[in-house]
Design a protein that fits this description.
Strand content: 5-15%
Structural class: alpha/beta
Order of helices and strands: EHEHHEHEHEHEHEHEHHHHEHEHEEHEHE
Strand order of the largest sheet: 3-2-1-4-5-6
Helix content: 40-55%
Largest sheet: 6 strands, parallel
CATH class of the largest domain: Alpha Beta
Number of domains: 2
Mean pLDDT: 97
Shape: globular
Low-confidence stretches: none
CATH superfamily of the largest domain: NAD(P)-binding Rossmann-like Domain
Number of helices: 16
Oligomer: single chain
Number of strands: 14
Bound molecules: nicotinamide-adenine-dinucleotide
CATH architecture of the largest domain: 3-Layer(aba) Sandwich
Amino acid sequence: MNLTIIGTGYVGLVTGACFAEVGHRVICVDNDASKVELLKRGGIPIYEPGLQEMVQKNTASGRLSFTNNTAEGVEKSDVIFIAVPTPPQPDGSVDMSFIERVARDIAAAMTEYKIVVDKSTVPVKTGDRVSETIKRYCKAKVDFDVVSNPEFLREGFAVGDLMKPDRIVIGVRSQRAVAAMKEIYTPFKAPIIITDVNSAELIKHAANSFLALKISYINAISVVCEAAGANVMQVAEGIGLDERIGRRFLNPGIGFGGSCFPKDLSAFIKISEQVGYSFRLLQEVQRINSEQMERFVKKITDTLWVLKDKKIGVLGLAFKQNTDDVRMSPAIDLCQRLQKEGAALRVHDPQAMEKAKPLLKGVTYVDDMNAVAEGCDALVIATEWEEFKALDLDRAQKALTHPIMFDGRNLFDPAEMGKRGWIYKSIGR
Ligand code: NAD
């Protein structure tokens, strides 16, 4: 099919590449001219395993192309996906101006029947708003369908998640749109759930809020474990093997971050409030999350006492492993809190250093993870990169003034670290 995706970021670019990979002809539109130029030259603006090869292969075959002209994308395709940002506003509600802008741009370019699919994460009833907007701004007065097709990909695993999704949710009003959406998604061989538009929109917020809740749950358990002398990793294992619960998302740490969970959680609380329900359970999820960070910083200051004039090595800047995304990263938040206390930082991340530089200034960026500890008073693990498990602990021990590690991601074994002579503080054990 001929498909257009408006917004070529994490979601739009990966979706475009994967649609092209299964044989559709895809135009990716972005209003950031430098991004489009980079993509046309064969570069990609984000780090995502396997993405660059897939983009290059499909661009070479002619199935994937890039433009900053929305009208061209609308004219040449039957189905237009919207994958633009839906950032939070200061009160937690969603800034819908990007979606509204794109709805108007699509409307202005429409001269025949189109299916407009919202892939961005949006508040329930956005489909109605998009329909009204298109009706209002489309001069040609043609028929169209608005579909909700929320995206569940995880950054760092985005290509795999897109190619082999757990499920595909499609919120529709007409059979014509159902048929087209099924044709697009059949090659992906995943269960397709057809719902009404409101339910599809709500599924995304409900899913992300539940995952955030699971993380806050295990973080709260970690506090109890620490106070009671239990080991949260063993508890997570013990409860996670229950199929009704599942082990995933039961990893204690310094809290969740990123461009999705915090914003989707605030948005869902706000949306619920607007329809008359005070979602206090989710407010508590937020509270536990911010306290988790405060507790970790306190662990550092309790041990090192005064941070002024201390040097701390920090491993990890991305909001989680396998990505270069630092938006709302707890690791960056942690670094800034340590800086505020007067600490000088030496930092390293396998992928996120370039993206961190504009956000995190006045630190020393170190290319080699094994050189981070050089001359530091302590080492902090802030992101759960798998490669950090291979850190040269003997070298770090020699490089530090005293072997102290604060492991915010429980990457090492406390007993083993103790045996090696480390003062090792982790989460919930
Ligand atoms: P992003 O910031 O990486 O990409 C958005 C792109 O849209 C940018 O390249 C921007 O230049 C472009 N854009 C903005 N306005 C435009 C316009 N008027 N015309 C054309 N292009 C425009 O954002 P993202 O992370 O891909 O998120 C997009 C949506 O998907 C959000 O609603 C987000 O909540 C949702 N989502 C994100 C993820 C994720 O892991 N990143 C997962 C699922 C859903």
